[in-house]
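Sanity check

After download, print the first record. It should look like this:
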Amino acid sequence: MLNRFKAGATAAIVIAAGLAGGLIQTTAAQAAEQSPWMVRGRALIVLPEENLDKVSPAIPTLDVSIDDSVVPELDITYFFTPNIAAELILGTTPHDVKTSGPSLDLGRVWLLPPTLTVQYHFAPEAKIRPYIGAGVNYTIFYGQGDEGPGVTSVKYDDSFGWALQAGVDIPIDDHWALNVDVKQLFLSTTATVNGAIKADVDINPLLIGLGVGYRF
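Expected structure tokens:
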């Protein structure tokens, strides 16, 4: 899981370096005049790394699969200093969930995982502006439905989790910037199927985002 995050973060930096050619460096005077507020919009690829921790009653052959998703994402960032910022990440993702051994279609569920990270921006006045972050998320599960035969109900418990982040902003002008961002969420839930079978499920999605930002 951490290897996937490292690989994604490295890819973000490589992509950013390729996009940075020909862009103009922002001066320190321009940076000083900027608002502390920044918003970004991204296309987000959500790649769960699902795993069953515990099932009650025990079903040794049971496994779970959660499909990938592509969704829009919005984040709001506030810069306390040129290097230190906090970012609130907003987005919601639908996923189809299935089990094998026995095979069950658990239908679709929506995840709403608002995430707050604290970031360190290494080079706030450079052509390429990398940052890292860490924080917490609270995931809300809603909109369950479309279950297959043999499944009468599925319930997922909301839960807190941790988040790691790495990304790059590439300024286009005084306000606009391109953005590449990778986040790893450490997310678990307890799923209850038909009111009888309970399973602790690690979802741990890797989020890869590409978009634009606007600094006010």
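If your output differs, re-run the checksum step. Summary of this record's structure: The radius of gyration is 20 Å.
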